[in-house]
């Protein structure tokens, strides 16, 4: 052994140290390093009975808010980053003509003078006929006189009915004017956050979007799974969402949709998870991974 070590340029003590390095109780440092790496990989993976898959957090709705009519923006009532409610006024187009039309229609509807006049004429004609009942019974009136009174009464009734119908027409015109004015008041169709203003005061609206509104409560988590897992998960099952980047703890969520079509090229299918976000602490667009719970934890 000593001669062999001298030929290799070593010494007896060195050869002895190398021989004893593989003895029991003195593990090989390289083997120990491999073992540590293996254990680290196992500890960072999903726990037994669980699976994790990469996913993406997205807004549940993204609305490019537009106007049903053309016009010039008169005012913007919401700012970027502002939370808005469904039906809240976001933008207002110039509407001087439409407001004037509404006021005019309201005055016409509120004016009942014509109806009142026609009603009095009808009542007068009916009183005249009533006063002549005894004369007609005694045959002291000619048939021509009777026909004249009845014709006047019938004509007064037609005028009164026409006046009332005209009020209904004016009410319909008022409703139309209000609808035309409402078209120039652009309101949010959802609860959400105004992400971006695309137009501002003084700009022309001619089919362009005015603002971008995102619904962030709830959020949708879009997951792509390999076809081998098809049929394994179902709507209504609970999952846990873990987020990348921001310091946000895991959140409970629920599967809302499992696609029934497999993408042939990637051999994957999609899944959607609904994630409550009432405090808006979770931003849309961040990466995540899904932890599928074992049946015992559902």
From TrEMBL:
It comes from the Bacteria. Pfam families: BSH_CzcB. Keywords: Coiled coil, Signal. The keyword Transmembrane does not apply. Residues 63-209 form the CzcB-like barrel-sandwich hybrid domain. InterPro entries: BSH_CzcB-like (IPR058647), RND_pump_MFP (IPR006143). Residues 1-17 form the signal peptide. Belongs to the membrane fusion protein (MFP) (TC 8.A.1) family. This is CzcB-like barrel-sandwich hybrid domain-containing protein. It comes from Thalassospira profundimaris.
